[in-house]
Specification:
19 helices; about 425 residues; mainly alpha; elongated
């Protein structure tokens, strides 16, 4: 019986193994297989973004362009109230912002060649920051500000600057390398592109980002200052007072903390920018604030002009350019003396007078030009206006009288300063000054 049991067990095991060999293995459930493939694809996509620095630049641009098109597709059908109806949870918002988030990730991983990629990146960020939905604009500007901070920090650290703080103050400009300077200019140029949108909140965030950049990297802006001073006049022309005030705040930071780091041409451009803010008629307080800054910057520039030594034709030509810039500023201040706002008129004339009183006799020719060509004709014109309005509007007459009195006091001060200085020089110098 034992033999029969053994034979039966062996026959049953052999039959079961044969049956197992005959049946193929069962495939995994379809859903699980698809999930595994999707997870694998997700991993490869993550590696593509994380290691995008290994891609050739043209391939990287193709990838950035694809992400931009993805954002266009996902955002263009977004209804006006879609986010208000429950789309604000992190999942839906993350899907909508996938393209711009991955674009910023690629930019951070390719800072060494960011200049070549910046065109596609900035267009993408500008599109999201000017979207019809405010939540999209806010997130777009958040990505923009964070990337600007990181990219500008990289440009400053990679600039190969020579010398320290004292050397930059001495010669008025930095010595950043060409590639770093070019990247800085492109980055700052993005502020102007962003500001051209039609949404006030985005404009306000752009100016907040600029102020943050000035406070963090102001001493390292160097050769990119013309880009900033080209953008700020656009702010002065904005029809909303909030933007004008924010622009004036940026200029105040430059005047208070960064003036000594600017080159002489940058100081001249800063002065013209201040005068544009003084001339705008949207916000009177910003006008008065800009006039006060004009006084300080103008006095600084006049001091530079008076202390310059004439060494050769090039230096003499540069001195003549600064003189023309200063006289042009005087002319614009005197033009502001015709403003409809009485406080602006008085402050503008007082500022012009204070600027004309140079710290040394070398500026006497500027003082006399201002007095003879600008201030005295203005006083004669103002006197005629007062006679016209005297009978019609007594209050307006009093306002113009205060402005005229301020101008007369200034003229007397200029004359007394010149008379005091005339006695210190010889007869030839005196005749040349008055001639």
């Amino acid at each position: 019986s034992s033999k029969e049991d053994t034979s039966s067990s062996s026959s049953s095991s052999s039959s079961s193994s044969a049956a197992a060999a005959a049946d193929p293995p069962r495939p995994p459930p379809p859903l699980l297989g698809q999930l595994n493939r999707l997870l694998l694809l997700r991993r490869w996509m993550d590696l593509l973004f994380e290691q995008s620095s290994r891609l050739p630049e043209d391939a990287c641009i193709v990838l950035l362009t694809a992400l931009y098109r993805l954002s266009l597709s996902s955002l263009q059908d977004l209804k006006a109230g879609a986010l208000d109806l429950g789309w604000t949870h992190s999942g839906s918002l993350g899907e909508l912002l996938f393209g711009v988030e991955r674009t910023v990730r690629i930019a951070r991983g390719n800072l060494m060649r960011l200049e070549g990629l910046w065109g596609t990146i900035s267009v993408h960020l500008s599109h999201v920051s000017s979207h019809a939905r405010s939540v999209m604009r806010q997130h777009g500007m958040l990505y923009f500000s964070e990337l600007m901070n990181e990219a500008f920090n990289f440009a400053c650290s990679a600039g190969g600057e020579q010398g320290g703080e004292e050397e930059r103050r001495k010669d008025g400009k930095g010595k950043d390398e060409g590639s770093s300077a070019s990247l800085k200019k492109k980055l700052i140029g993005a502020y102007e592109d962003m500001f051209k949108c039609s949404y006030s909140d985005t404009k306000s965030l752009v100016l907040s980002s600029l102020h943050q950049l000035l406070s963090s990297y102001g001493m390292n802006i160097q050769s990119a200052w013309p880009s900033i001073l080209h953008f700020l006049p656009l702010v002065a022309q904005d029809p909303e007072s909030q933007q004008v005030r924010q622009g004036a705040t940026c200029l105040a930071y430059v005047c208070d903390h960064l003036l000594l780091s600017l080159s002489l041409p940058d100081v001249e451009q800063l002065l013209q920018c201040l005068l544009l803010f003084a001339s705008q008629d949207v916000d009177a307080e910003s006008s008065l604030r800009a006039i006060a800054m004009t006084r300080d910057v103008g006095r600084y520039l006049m001091g530079k002009l008076c202390r310059q030594e004439l060494e050769g034709k090039e230096e003499e030509r540069r001195r003549a350019e600064v003189t023309r810039s200063v006289l042009s500023s005087f002319a614009k201040l005197v033009q502001l003396g015709r403003d409809k706002r009485s406080r602006v008129r008085e402050e503008a004339i007082s500022t012009a007078v204070e600027m004309s009183l140079g710290p040394e006799d070398k500026c006497a020719h500027v003082m006399i030009s201002f007095l003879g060509s600008l201030l005295l004709p203005y006083l004669q014109e103002t006197s005629g206006w007062m006679e016209t309005v005297e009978q019609e509007k007594k209050n307006l007459h009093r306002q113009w009288l205060r402005t005229w009195s301020a101008g007369m006091r200034g003229a007397a001060k200029v004359l007394s300063e010149r008379m005091a200085g005339a006695g210190k020089g010889g007869k030839e110098e005196e005749e040349e000054g008055w001639g």
